[in-house]
Specification:
By secondary structure, the chain is mainly alpha-helical. Helices cover 66% and strands 4% of the residues. The chain contains 21 helices and 6 strands. The strands form 3 sheets. A two-stranded antiparallel sheet has the order 1-2. The protein has a two-stranded parallel sheet with strand order 3-4. Helix 9 links the parallel strand 3 and strand 4. The longest helix has 48 residues. The radius of gyration is 31 Å and the shape is elongated. The structure holds arginine. The site of arginine (ARG) has 10 residues, from helix 7 and helix 13.
């Protein structure tokens, strides 16, 4: 077996296997193999157009590269004797196309700008995929919320019954959080979409390269200008991992609720069998394992973020090999976030909400006491703090009925609510969770018409977001197709 094609000049190649595989990023580079082929194609086309290499060499190189693009990379390229996929593909091209053509591939570039470009291409793809998944999740939450604007449930603070709300309101809270995740990823996409290619090792090159041309061929919006920054920068990677970690923190919160809600003392939801496991000893068990593992994956992705920040901090300009250690954390974070988003959608789709249990709990724990205090303010002109004290004292006395409230009012404020006209029906109405919800119609509140308005607004935002994703995807695949077609034309022009 031939050795490492890069170690024919300066260094000997008699390394122990332990060092060779320690240095190689080949396994993680499986994530960027296809991107690297695109980068090679763009680079060769630019070299030819700029008159840096002759057309015949470009045609030979492209004839070897296009099958790799079409059929994928042969397994032999992933041999760990190569330091990375860039060296692997170059060695393959030299072998299959000959040194005259293959040996010209790397004119005017370095693996430093090459890998930075590959990472951004693959990351762009993954972010767009995540945006699509998030859009699907938001659509599901919106559709489910539509069915539950009247489904009463308790709302919690400190995990104590706090005030009644509806399932729709609760689901739309998650929709709002996932919309911000969507925004974050979409904003990151703008920064990811700048091409480092042409930066070479860090100081660009003396060849008359055209950076804007390769950027355009690869579907980038512009170039990452400063060439030292272009090879050294990994903030876009850290940002993407951070987007993933923030998303996963919300996924994990929702999963925590599903775990809680599916327990038999809460029993608000039954999760689909497909997402649950049973016990090897307790035959009755149905455990929410998918939600639990997702909750843990948030920890894994956060770990990737901490690793990324720690690897990059204090690295001097420009490229340092430490950066190779960063990429696997990115792929892991993106992979786990993607599959958790997808599985969360499946789990929610199959979840059966128990409306009866939710209604039973809606008004428990004195959770309508706030509305009762508000009624005392609205209808009897009390300051809120006084009303709050009266209702709180009645709770302490053990009941929220007319007599106890009146006793509490005498004690706390020296007034009689009875004398002021409060009657049993008035108390009952104030304590009715449906009533409490119906008056909470401020924007974003739980009143059915307020939630309905949120749902409509969220649905139209989502329509816009979905077409944004489709548009971005289309623009990139168009650039891709155009480049491949131009490469084919170049080859054909040489054959004629
Ligand atoms: N495998 C390397 C990485 O992931 C590619 C760049 C190598 N550059 C170098 N100067 N050794 O960062």
């Amino acid at each position: 077996m031939a050795g490492d094609s890069l170690r024919t000049g300066r260094l000997g190649d008699d390394r122990p296997e332990s060092v060779t595989s320690f240095l190689s990023s080949m396994e993680a580079d499986r994530w960027i193999g296809n991107a690297d082929v695109l980068v090679d194609i763009a680079h060769v086309m630019m070299l030819e157009r700029q008159g840096i290499i002759e057309r015949q060499y470009a045609a030979t190189l492209l004839s070897a590269l296009l099958p790799l693009h079409r059929d994928g990379l042969p397994e032999e390229i992933f041999d760990e004797r190569h330091e990375d996929i860039h060296a692997g593909i170059e060695a393959y091209l030299i072998e299959s196309a000959g040194m005259d053509a293959g040996g010209r591939l790397h004119i005017g570039r370095s693996r430093n700008d090459e890998v930075a470009t590959c990472i951004r291409i693959r990351l762009r793809e993954l972010v767009l995929e995540e945006l699509g998944l998030l859009a699907g999740l938001r659509r599901l939450l919106i559709d489910t919320a539509r069915e539950h604007t009247g489904t009463m449930m308790p709302g919690f603070t400190h995990l104590q019954h706090a005030q009644p709300t509806t399932l729709a309101h609760h689901l739309m809270a998650y929709e709002a959080a996932f919309s911000r995740d969507f925004e974050r990823f979409a904003e990151s996409l703008g920064r990811i979409g700048r091409s480092p290619l042409g930066a070479a090792a860090f100081a660009s090159t003396g060849y008359p390269i055209d950076r804007a041309l390769t950027a355009g061929l690869l579907g980038f919006e512009r170039i990452e200008e400063n060439t030292m920054d272009a090879v050294a920068a990994r903030d876009v990677v850290i940002e993407a991992i951070s987007d993933c970690a923030i998303l996963m923190s919300t996924v994990s919160r929702l999963c925590e609720e599903l775990v809680l809600w599916s327990s038999s003392f809460v029993a608000f939801v039954e999760l689909p069998d497909a997402c649950c496991s049973t016990s090897s000893i307790m035959p009755q068990k149905k455990n929410p394992d998918t939600a639990e593992i997702m909750r843990a994956k948030a920890g894994t992705v956060t770990g990737a973020l901490i690793a990324a920040l720690t690897i990059v901090k204090a690295l001097p300009m420009s490229y340092n090999r430490d950066l190779q250690e960063l990429s696997p954390h990115l792929w892991k974070a993106a992979f786990e976030s993607g599959r958790c988003t997808r599985l969360l959608c499946d789990m929610l789709k199959g979840a059966r909400f128990n409306k009866t249990r939710m209604r039973e709990e809606a008004a428990k724990g004195g959770s309508t006491a706030t509305e009762l205090a508000d009624v005392l303010v609205r209808e009897y002109g009390l300051p809120f703090r006084t009303a709050h004290g009266i209702v709180g004292r009645a709770v302490r006395l053990g009941r929220l009925d007319l007599a106890t409230l009146d006793a509490a009012a005498r004690e706390m404020a020296g007034i009689s609510l009875l004398a002021a006209g409060l009657d049993k029906a008035g108390v009952a109405r104030a304590l009715d969770p449906e009533f409490g919800i119906s008056v909470r119609k401020a924007p974003g509140g739980p009143a059915p018409e307020a939630v309905q308005a949120s749902i409509s607004a969220a649905a139209s935002r989502l329509d816009g977001d979905e077409s944004y994703v489709a548009g971005r995807q289309k623009a990139i695949s168009r650039a891709n197709e155009r480049m491949i077609q131009e490469a084919q034309e170049l080859i054909a022009s040489q054959q004629n």
